[in-house]
Amino acid sequence: MTTFPVDWVDAFTARPMGGNGCAVVHDAGALSSDTCMQFVKETSLVECTFLEASEVADVKVRYFLASQEIPFAGHPTIATAASLRARGVLSGPRMSFETGAGIIEVAVDEGHRFTMTQAKPAFGAVCDPGEIAAIYGLAPEDILGVPQVVSTGIGFVISVVRSIEALRAARLDLAALKAHGAKLGVPDGTMVEPYLITLSGAEEGSTFSRLLLAPPSPAEDPFTGSATGAAAAYLWHHGLIESPTYIAEQGHDMGRPGRAWVEVIGPREAPQAVRVGGEAHVLMSGTLHLG
Predict the structure, then answer these.
(1) Contact (Cβ atoms closer than 8 angstroms) between residue 131 and residue 162
(2) Is the peptide bond before 215 cis (omega within 30 degrees of 0)?
(3) Of the candidates 180, 251, 249, the residue with the CA atom closest to the CA atom of residue 222
(4) Half-sphere exposure of 132 (CA within 13 A, CB side)
(5) Is residue 269 packed enough to be buried (19+ CB in 10 Å), middle (13-18) or exposed (0-12)?
(6) How far apart are CA 277 and CA 105, in angstroms?
(7) Within 10 A of 202 (CB to CB), how many other CB atoms are there?
(8) Strand-strand pairing, 245-250 and 206-212
(9) Is the separation of the CB atoms in 203 and 168 below 8 Å?
(10) How far apart are alpha carbons 9 and 117 in whole angstroms?
(11) Measuring CA to CA, which residue among 254, 184, 199 is closest to residue 21?
């Protein structure tokens, strides 16, 4: 019997069972990709991380959905940092993670907020607002501006929604999502999902967002840290926010409210990086038993 230490961490929240959960599996270098994906499916979480030794950073982090490995994910990065800190594996004000999107630096402040510096924003293809609206059963006028693929480690189609009412009304049409993905060169529609965001969060100066997902992932992501970074770069670059710092909110309507502190680094015409920070709560710790 092979065993692995594991923590279940709720990220972008200080309370148990808020924000977005992630299982962090330590010393997992011997696990196959298939086993990692099976474990994610077993947890019913969106993503889990699997840690191993690194020669270029404090630790190597692999990110898995139930369907595939991905280069980077936001809330699992926060969860991983909290797990490493809680176990005493890493201490001090900074951590470095080797990921498929490069080295990710995570700062830890005295209030136990974990802030990751995501990769330089990459702006990609633009999309038809009407097609994005159709994926969610919305009217074309519910999508403001021109949606665009943006990545700070993994890509999303950042799509600004007219109102929080329209955001809440969105329902995923899987066939339309796959057709959209095929146009962008991703036949199953995943990895370029539209990230829906409105500029009217629960408090002044905040945003509110949703990410609806295709099977075998859960139907909706409670909080998406990677898309938060991509959205921040989009909003700043296109002049949709006055300040490069703001609060991002997600998951409230799911009963899992999450919050991130966001800062875009660099001028509007050429953002250089995005910092996304949040709290985390280690909900459970134990041992994973694999035969």
Answers:
(1) no
(2) no
(3) 251
(4) 30
(5) exposed
(6) 12
(7) 13
(8) parallel
(9) no
(10) 20
(11) 254
β 69-70/273-278 pair status: unpaired
Per DSSP, the residues of 169-182 read: H----HHHHHHHHH
Residue pLDDT, tens place only, 153-208: 999 999 999 999 999 999 999 999 999 999 888 876 667 899 999 998 766 668 99
In this structure, what DSSP letter does residue 119 have?
P
- 34, 44, 259 from 157: Cα distances, Å: 28, 25, 21
- Contact yes or no for 283/43 (Cβ under 8 A): no
Q: For the whole prediction, is pTM greater than 0.85?
A: yes
Transcribe 223-270 into DSSP letters: --HHHHHHHHHHHHHTT--SSSEEEEEE-GGGT--EEEEEEEES-TTS
Could you give the CA distance from residue 235 to residue 206 in angstroms, rounded to a whole number? 12
